[in-house]
Each structure stands twice: as C-alpha cells, then as structure tokens.
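Methods — Computational structure assignment.
A single polypeptide chain was analysed. Its primary sequence is given first, followed by the predicted tertiary structure written as structure tokens.
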Amino acid sequence: MKRSHKIINGIYIAFFLALIIVSGVIVFGSDQTVWEARKSEVVRCGEYAMDSFYSYTNTLLVPLSDEQIHTLEKRTQSLMTQMVQKVTIHDVCPEGAEELEEYQIRSTFLRMKGKSAGMEVLCRADYQGTAYYISLQADFTDLSAKSLKTRRIYAGAAAAVILFGGAFFILLNLLWIETDKSKKFMENFNHELKTPLTSILGYTEILQSMSLTEDERKHALDALSFEATRLNHLSTQMLNIFITQNEKPELSAVAASDIAGELEIPLDALSEKYDVPYTIRFEEETILCSKDLLLLLITNLADNAFKATVNAERKDPVVVEGKRSNGGYLISVRDHGIGISKQHIKRITEPFYREDKARSRAQGGAGLGLALCSEIAQMHGSALSFASRKGSGTRVSFELKRSGV
C-alpha cells in the first residue's frame, strides 16, 4: 500500500475514533450534569425541610408530639411532591448518622425497590434539647431510565458509525488494492510487451541496414523468432486469463483415466524438450471438471515442473498424480527441482510475478502461467496449494469434486 494511502487511512481512523470519543464525552458528560442537577435539587429540598421544621417549631412551646411530627411530615412533603416521594421525621439517630451535627445535611445514593435508583437526604435539627432527623427519599427511576435510554442510543449510534465507517474503510482499501493491482498489472504488461518489441525492432533494423555474415543473419533471425514466440505466448496467456475470468465453464463428469490419457502427448513433448523424465498415475474415479481447462491447468503446472528440474543437480522424474481424498479427488504435480523460496510462495500466482526474472525470460516465460492456473482452479471451486523448499523441489496440488459425491 502506498504511503499516501496509509496516511489517509490513519487520518480516517483517527477522525472516527475522535468522533466517537468526543460524542461519548458529550453524551456522558451531559448525563452526569443532569444527575448532579437532580442531586442538588434534592439537597435543596432537604435545606427547605430543615427551614420548615424550625419555622414550625418556633411557634411551639412544648415538645413535639407524634401527631405534630406527622403533620409536619405531610406539610413538608406536600410542598415538594415532584422531587421527593417520602419525608420522615424521627428522634432516633439512624445508623451511621452519629457524627451528623445540627444544621448538617448528608446525601446518599441508594437502591430502592427492584432496580430503581434513588437518593436519601438526611438533615439534623435540634428542638428543646432533642435531635430530630429529617429524612427525604427521592426516586430517580425516571432519570435512571432516561440515562439508560440515552446510553443505549449512543451505543447504537456508535455501533452504526463503526459498522458503516468500517465497511466504507474496507471498501475504500479494497478499491485502492484493486487500483494498485490494475496499475501494477498494466506496468508489468507494458514492460513485458516492450521488451520483445524492442528486440524485434532492433534486430529488424540490423537486418535491414547492415551487411551480415550468414551466421550473424541466422542469429538475428533466431532472436526474432524467439521474441515473436514470446509475444505470441504472452497474448495467448492473456487471452486465456481473460476468458477464464469472464466465462463460467460447464463442469461435467469425466473419467480420471481419460485425463491421464490425454496428458501423455503434451507431457511427452515437454519431457523431450527439457530432457527430463516423468511419471503419471491416476486412480480410477469420475471427477467433475471442464476437461479442456483442466488439461491446460495440469500442463501449465507440469511445464513449470520441467523447467524447475532442468537446472537441478539431479533430473528426477516429474510426477503427475491423481488420487481419491476425503470427499474429493486430489491432483498434484511434483518435481525435485530448484524449489521456491518461502517469501515468494504467497505472491507466486500474481500476474507477471516471477521469483527469478532472468531465468524465466530466458525460458520464454511471462509470469502468467500460475496466474492462469489459479484462475482455472478457482473456476472449479478449488485453489492451488504449494509445498516447496529451496533446492528440494515443489509440489503443487488442488482438489476437485468427485461425481456423485
């Protein structure tokens, strides 16, 4: 990925994270502000209740009776019905309020019935030497429900932002990847096309403008033939890839022995061309495939295997094998040639990608063979699997469906 794309990705991710964090701070901050405001209102109610108590007792000259306390409770609660649900006055010190002094207020959040949240405000007021404790209980169920609803809305909005933002991020990067692939493909294609054309133009100019000996003339014509063959091979491979990418083949039941029989002619030709022996063995089975495409796939893999064996220390036979596997039919092409480095295997099926560009060009390759093989395997619902070690050979395999399974 280009550096500019990485920078844009970083800015994009940072923007969305900042958006989620800032909106979260705003939402939860606002929520906290509402809770603090409600808490302050209930505390003010406690102050008012204490003032009410002193105002009422200032008119009395006798100790408070139970009836007077009850009257004072009802009077106080009637004035703050929206904020406080329960007001009680008692002369027994509640647990934990021993250190509460006169005129002092203590507020405590508490859990009320069920899952309701609430708050208790406890005030101390002294009258005729007796400490009275005024308790106000406020139910925050409505506030708790609103807070929960707000948090759920925020969580849903954040999830939606992450989901759609993530989807857009993935699509954007896939688009960049495909664009980069297309650009790289065109650059490689242009290079592969330009190299033989330059050679052809150069040798043509030599033949037209210079006096050559018979050997020099033959060398120039051989070079022209080689480069023309490369161009023809390149165009054929490009056409085959285009066809496989744009047409869905019809798979039919074919006997594995028929595939093995038709492979003998091209494998004999490759064996003679590279002076490398081969063995072929296919277990009897009926497989689902496009016969012509499967033959092209195996032949291309075998061609690579023969090429890899030419430069090996020992010219052990190339092995083309087909055998039944769990629910399928495994076809493999194995050689004991030069092998493929581990770091190259993951990119080996990319168009125009070659581990050894100089050797590949010398053998007339354009780096499209394995790309074509990969496309054909995918059309059969399979994929190429590579097992290789440098200097020890390569095994390429893929699995096809068996007919009737």
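Note: Confidence is low (pLDDT under 50) at residues 357-364.
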